[in-house]
Amino acid sequence: MAGAVLVLTAGCSAGHNSPVAHPPVPRGPVHPAATTSAPPPRPRTMVFHGARDSGMVALTFDADMTPGMWRSLDAGRIASSFDRRIIETLHTTQTPATIFATGMWIERYPGETKKLAADPLLEFGNHSYEHSAFAMPCYGLPALPPGRQTADVRRTGTILDRYVPGHTPYFRFPGGCHDKAAVRAVLAAAVTPVQWDVISGDAFGHDPRAIAHNVLAQAKGGSIVVMHLNGAPTAPETHAALPDIIRGLRARGLRLVKVSELLAAH
């Protein structure tokens, strides 16, 4: 997983590079928000992908925030840790997606979180409170002691309850780092760990075509793709790679869905 996970000792912002020119991306079917819906499925084990015969792929975006990133934002060393161009592309192409947000990211962007939560194309999952590692080593992230892990998941779940009513019961490990004890700690919070089987390589990636190629070369029915919502400097070209990713997956007849829909077909 080296090269695929954000090492969050520095801050993140929406990149300022001009997007790569792209032809129009085909829209997917629009699914209006339902007035009532069944609870998302919650498997009692760790999930890496959905059913391979589903014909579906889930795009996921980690919204990371650490104390160091927060300080960098306060000091003006970075402008933002939310690349809105990603959301604009999802809207333009009518592409559903799942955001895994840390509690600190939600606290930094409470108004934006509420707006995203109201969008029927999007759903939210839990990404810990401050992106500390649940297993070591983990790409330079500080360790979260095992005795605090379940409480950390619940703390972020409470923040999600406040800003994202009806959020999914899903959790993504910071850095993707986990062991058996960490999985048990997350399950003890009544939340299912959701990993991925497709690494986009958008973390510190500066070639959007290479990022798109990584996804299209790996993705198949049931795949869960990991990307990042933060923008530059840690994920500067996600926004530029996304149109090609969406276009390429749909050209292969794959349907883009939220993680909850993918797992419902498992």
Count of individual beta strands: 8
Mean pLDDT: 89
Oligomer: single chain
Strand content: 5-15%
Biggest β-sheet description: 6 strands, parallel
Please identify which CATH superfamily we are dealing with.
Answer: Glycoside hydrolase/deacetylase
Task: Based on Cα principal axes, name the global outline.
Answer: globular
Q: Helix-strand pattern, N to C?
A: EHHEHHEHEHEEHEHEH
Compute the separation of the termini in Å.
25 Å
The CATH class name reads Alpha Beta
Total domains, how many? 1
Decide which structural class fits the backbone: alpha/beta
Query: Please, how many helices?
Result: 9
Please state the CA-atom Rg, rounded to the nearest Å: 17 Å
Describe the structure.
The chain contains nine helices and eight strands. Helix 2 runs parallel beside helix 8 (238-251), helix 5 crosses helix 6 and helix 7 (208-218) packs parallel to helix 8. 34% of the residues lie in helices and 12% in strands. Strands 1, 2, 3, 6, 7 and 8 form a six-stranded parallel beta sheet that branches. Strands 4-5 form a two-stranded parallel sheet. The chain has one domain (56-264): Alpha-Beta Barrel (TIM Barrel), CATH 3.20.20. The protein is of the alpha/beta class and 266 residues long.
Features:
266 residues; alpha/beta; TIM Barrel; 6-stranded parallel β-sheet; two-stranded parallel sheet; 8 strands; disordered N terminus
In short:
With 266 residues, the protein is an alpha/beta fold.
